[in-house]
Specification:
With 197 residues, this protein is an all-alpha fold. 79% of the residues lie in helices and 2% in strands. The protein is built from 7 helices and 2 strands; from the N terminus they run αββαααααα. A hairpin with a 2-residue loop joins strand 1 and strand 2. The protein is globular. The termini are far apart.
Length: 197
Amino acid sequence: MTTERLKTLSDSILLVSLTLLAYNLVPPSVVNGQLNADEVKNFLDNLYGLISSFFVIIVFWVIYTKILDHLKESNEIVVWVSLTFFILVLLTPVFSVALFQYQVQPSITSLASLQIVNGILLVLLWIYLLRHRNMMTIELKKNDNRYMYSILSVIPSLYAISIGIAFINIQMAIIFPVIMVPTMMLLGQAFHHQKKG
């Protein structure tokens, strides 16, 4: 499987994941001119789950695509790690819906563990490419490598922290991973200024 095919497959996985997210969003029904309160709560939970999962899936897709940008040629290891990563990304909507419907410690731990494993897979893929530089398109500078490791560590770190937070406050643990987007933006800005300076 060529790098281009892996990119095409990752784009397809993104589309399927987003479709699965939207599929779970069912508007609340109206009975006698009144919205069903339980269905409204369920709808809002699913909506928040959709938005947070959307950001996680997009961030994973962006990072994975960035890794592929450095890949000149793939081999069986890259393909199998990628396929495992894709399968786990497809499970994100299911685990997210479970989290927002049940809002209990096991559902938080399950979703967090899934995202930690996904993050670790990308870290391992990056380490593998660094050890086989003949597979890479360009020679990386030290700052570029540090930036990639920083970006790769954000999602697993935030979800690991959210497991700890869940023992104190479940609602806070659910919201906590949303800070990944501003964290990524701040990291990008920091390394951009470092390159200029």
